[in-house]
Amino acid sequence: MPIAAVSLPSPASAATNQFKGMNWAVLGDNFSTGTLVLRGLSSSDSYATVKAKANALYDDMASMGVNTVRLPVNASTVGTSWWNSYKGTIDAATGRGWKVILGYWEDQNASGGKITNVSAWNSMWTTVINAYGGNGNVYLEPMNEPHGYSSADWRNLAASWLTTHTGANKSRVLISGTGYSQDLRDLCGDSRFSSTLFAFHIYTFFYGAHDTAGWQDLMKTRLGSCASRAVVTEFGAQMDNGLNYGSSTDTTNFVTYLRGVTQVMRDNNMGGAYWPALGGKPGANGYDPYSMFSMGGSGTNLTLTVRNASGRDRVRYGWGL
Predict the structure, then answer these.
(1) Structurally, how many domains does the chain consist of?
(2) For 273-285, how does the pLDDT look when each residue is reduced to its tens digit (9 = 90+)?
(3) In terms of C-beta density within 10 A (0-12 exposed, 13-18 middle, 19 or more buried), how is residue 255 classed?
(4) Which of 119, 225, 260, 309 suits 84 as a labelling partner, its CA being 20 to 30 A distant?
């Protein structure tokens, strides 16, 4: 049964399944001390070229019902000459009415899951908010996977971010769970976040092997009472080895995981951003085995092809489609 919505002083959502999303990542992952050049882009691309490439990729993502893209930001990107081009990824999405989640990944100003230069981090966010704080389709995730902090220290830092960045609409801010964004229970009871949304991550490598019911129980436990305001900003499974995610009898851990996670999402009207659409950590074949799409084409005529139709369908099921 869906968790009952809590009465809130600001219009944080009482259901988040409006987020039908994909992560678009750097090939090699977004933890980078340099500029974030997403898979399919080139650091020499102009704003117009980035926007054209993004629109080509978004066209193909839209065919599976995507209406949200989660994009990384860092201080090596925001405010630089590349930022002027990179904004094409954001503007192409918002121009078609999509939602964009901008999440901060560790760079030279963060290490080990902690911000090491709070001033640079805040300055970066000020630049982002000046550009997009007034755009109702842009959502802000102050830090991805703040695993270096205790629960209390992370909540204090996140609350300080909200106080510092008054230009950020709290109902369009996603505060990450503790650890690797994997536990929301302490945040649920913290009144400083009563108007925000929450970002939640869950992967097989966090928790080992479980059957479908076990994955459901594990996820529901860590969501606490926050499911109505949580977006699963990262979840993903192998898409390149022919697994059948439509099977209710297959006991392969990736199958039971994805079926369990998407069932909890659907039952609670939760949205999510699959990890990744393209980019991510390359395996032996040169791409992230979790990636939903393979990329083809050239120039600004890029194309995406679904790697696993049953995986695509199960993600759509989790979105409520």
Answers:
(1) 1
(2) 999 999 999 999 9
(3) buried
(4) 119
